[in-house]
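Researcher: Please generate the 3D structure of the following complex. Treat every line as part of one assembly.
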Amino acid sequence: MAADLQGKVVVVTGGARGLGAAAAREVVAGGGSVVVTDVLEHEGRETAEALGSAARFHHHDVTSEDDWQTVLEHAVAEFGQLTGVVNNAGVSAASLLEHESVAHFRKVLDINLTGVFIGMQKAIPLLRAAGGGSIVNISSAAGLTALPLTGPYGASKWGVRGLTKIGAMELSESRIRVNSVHPGMVYTPMTAVTGLERGEGNYPGTAMGRAGEPEEIAAAVAFLLSDAASYMTGSEIAVDGGWTAGKTLRELTGGTLPPGNEPQVHGR
Ligand SMILES: NC(=O)c1ccc[n+]([C@@H]2O[C@H](COP(=O)([O-])OP(=O)(O)OC[C@H]3O[C@@H](n4cnc5c(N)ncnc54)[C@H](O)[C@@H]3O)[C@@H](O)[C@H]2O)c1
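Model: Done. Output below.
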């Protein structure tokens, strides 16, 4: 069942596709209104149009302060107020630190971290004017643990996690909650290019043995946007099939339990 988002007005960045589009669908399913924003004009419009009158699309580069101002004002003009922001837009990158260029490092940080900072800063007065609200920052499992080959991406996602907690401390008196969501490997256009396949058994790196679906992340996002999460701020929710919880039994045993360790049933 969708989280209750009646009366909520939420801006979702990077909402044209993938996790952002799923979050936008979840907002509308919960009775809220959504402004889908993205640099992808065509896909963004299609995603918003499919959601009917409770959704709008606005072109938006999250690295631009002017774009942020316009988008947030647009949300208030269209739907009367702003109660939530999902800072979801992001780019991924995979390379060894020693092969990274400074220019590329800066670019990833600009989109994935500075974009979140600008969004939080610009949203504060509008959320305050609404009597409070909820900011949900999409970090990553790569913002909870060290993943090789994710230099700029991992640094940006650890940064998002920290910024979230600082925002939570600074904004609680304004009744603005700030939390981060940390997806593991989820099947989206971002990860499909790596050859990731969906379905059971296709991602043995997690306890659950599969990649997540965008809707499974969106459910956590919607919960944090809703009043059901009224006592949550500064929290980090891993939605990663157990990836960051520890080593899987398969990894530890190579798939075969040592003799004498077969599961036992104790008691009646
Ligand atoms: N898919 C995963 O496995 C996974 C795991 C952990 C975290 N994440 C994070 O979730 C978020 C969404 O990822 P996704 O998998 O849906 O990826 P995606 O590539 O499918 O979607 C990302 C969206 O962000 C948009 N975007 C990129 N740069 C932008 C900019 N400067 N301004 C505005 N929009 C911009 C893209 O156009 C795209 O629509 C990202 O922050 C990503 O790092 C994804």
